């Protein structure tokens, strides 16, 4: 699947909405939600890469800055450093993966921090056993109330939430810190009593130690994820895609500051 996103517009206006609607072949009412916030925002997805490329050309001709991604390639990408353990040093953070790979990232090199929450809905079917009054047994017993076992299926829905932080530093692979996938012993005396507290401390420390990094938290909640991905992509299965689009959009926007387009 090939995803087309737009980014870097100054503000939503009726004129801009009409231009986007014309490019997408939809109504202004359908186009307007795609312009909430300051982008990036997915506007279409296609199985056919040529159709995606055609839409990119059309949007570019109308002044929109665009991103084109192969969603399948993003989902299967292994070009990340998944952190298992970390330690804060004076000038850098030292990280280690579960297979023993090690790396060092200078705080001054970090340019982007993207926290997010993976929200997965879980549905379970449980068998509930109850005892109910049995009219037949009661009659046979001469009126003494009798019961019998009755089983029924009951569906229970719940959500599992897991936070992660994606760190970008120049052209090196992004480092992914997962709340449930790391050890926090590297914090030493600063280690807290729970994973949640330790992860919050990690995030706060990275923000303090990397003052030059852009911090964007719109993917921490489902509303922000849905706004970026649009109505056609599930937030449960496309969070990595949302992170990649946001990272690309913010970095491209930074490179474009002061230039033309809608900004």
Description of the molecule:
The chain is α+β, with helices and mostly antiparallel strands and 263 residues long. The protein has three domains: 2-73, 2-Layer Sandwich (Ribosomal Protein L30, Chain: A), CATH 3.30.1390.10; 77-121 and 159-249, PH-domain like, CATH 2.30.29; 125-157, no CATH class. Helix content is 31%, strand content 32%. The chain contains eight helices and eleven strands. It has helices at 14-24, 28-31, 49-61, 71-76, 135-140, 195-209, 222-229, 239-256; strands spanning 2-7, 41-46, 65-70, 81-83, 85-88, 92-96, 102-106, 112-133, 147-168, 175-178, 214-215. A five-stranded mixed beta sheet has the order 4-10-9-8-11, sandwiched between helices. A three-stranded antiparallel beta sheet has the order 2-1-3, sandwiched between helices. The longest helix is centred in the C-terminal third of the chain and has 18 residues, at 239-256. The radius of gyration is 25 Å and the shape is flat. The two termini are 29 Å apart. The relative contact order is 0.18. Mean pLDDT is 85; it is low at 258-263.
CATH class of the largest domain: Mainly Beta
Strand order of the largest sheet: 4-10-9-8-11
Q: How many strands, which pairing sense, and closed or not: the largest β-sheet?
A: 5 strands, mixed
Strand/helix succession:
EHHEHEHEEEEEHEEHEHH
State the helix count.
8
Task: Quote the average pLDDT.
Answer: 85
As a whole number of angstroms, the C-alpha radius of gyration is 25 Å
Short description:
The chain has 263 residues and is an alpha+beta fold. It is built from 8 helices and 11 strands. A hairpin with a 6-residue loop joins β9 and β10 (175-178).
């Amino acid at each position: 699947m090939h995803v087309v996103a737009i980014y870097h517009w100054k503000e939503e206006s009726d004129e801009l909405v009409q231009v986007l609607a014309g490019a997408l072949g939809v109504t202004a009412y359908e186009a307007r939600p795609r312009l909430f916030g300051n982008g990036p925002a997915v506007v279409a997805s296609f199985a056919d890469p040529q159709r995606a490329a055609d839409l990119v050309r059309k949007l570019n001709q109308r002044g929109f800055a665009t991103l084109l991604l192969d969603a399948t390639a993003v989902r299967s990408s292994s070009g990340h450093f998944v952190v298992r353990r970390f330690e804060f040093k004076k000038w850098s953070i030292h990280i280690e993966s579960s297979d023993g790979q090690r790396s060092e990232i200078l705080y001054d090199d970090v340019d982007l921090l993207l926290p997010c929450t993976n929200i997965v809905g879980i549905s379970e079917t449980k068998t509930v056993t109850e005892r109910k009054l049995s009219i037949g047994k009661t009659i046979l017993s001469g009126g003494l109330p009798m019961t019998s076992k009755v089983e029924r299926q009951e569906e229970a829905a719940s959500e599992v939430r897991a936070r992660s932080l994606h760190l970008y530093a120049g052209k090196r692979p992004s480092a992914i810190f997962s709340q449930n996938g790391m050890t926090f012993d590297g914090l030493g005396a600063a280690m807290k009593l729970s994973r949640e507290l330790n992860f919050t401390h990690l995030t706060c420390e990275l923000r303090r130690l990397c003052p030059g990094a852009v911090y964007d938290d719109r993917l921490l909640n489902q509303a922000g994820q849905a706004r970026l991905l649009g109505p056609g992509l599930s937030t449960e299965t496309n969070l990595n895609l949302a992170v990649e689009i946001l990272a690309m959009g913010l970095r491209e926007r930074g490179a474009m500051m002061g230039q033309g387009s809608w900004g």
